[in-house]
Amino acid sequence: MSEETIFSKIIRQEIPTQLLYQDELVSAFRDIAPQVSSHILIVPNKHISTINDVTEADELTMGRMIIVAKKLAKEEGIDESGYRLIINCNEDGGQEVFHIHMHLLGGQRLGAMLSV
Ligand code: AMP
Description:
Layout: H1 6-11, E1 19-22, E2 26-30, E3 38-44, H2 59-76, E4 83-86, H3 90-93, E5 102-106
Antiparallel strand pairs: 1-2, 2-3, 3-5, 4-5
The structure holds adenosine monophosphate (AMP).
């Protein structure tokens, strides 16, 4: 598995970043360059580079990411208006940080899902 990214330092709080959520499996914090008014990243605490690297042992962690997304969407007040969850993988998927992260995006009407 490739090297840790800045997200591991955020998870360990070696870089001061406000955590919106943390438990033994996942952490969540606001995206540094928000694309919409609510833009949160939900990440596994363990370094996993891409979705291609997920194994069956990570099933609970990946499920927890969804549960936390749902909880944070409610806290942000966007659960009823709606939101989008995105995980990018590798170059064609637009992945820039190689530590799996789920984008929670909402707070406004989102455009077409894909711009290709
Ligand atoms: P992706 O293109 O899916 O890999 O998304 C990476 C996301 O990480 C981008 O939306 C960046 O704005 C965000 N990002 C990069 N560095 C940080 C950071 N230090 N704190 C919070 N978000 C970050």
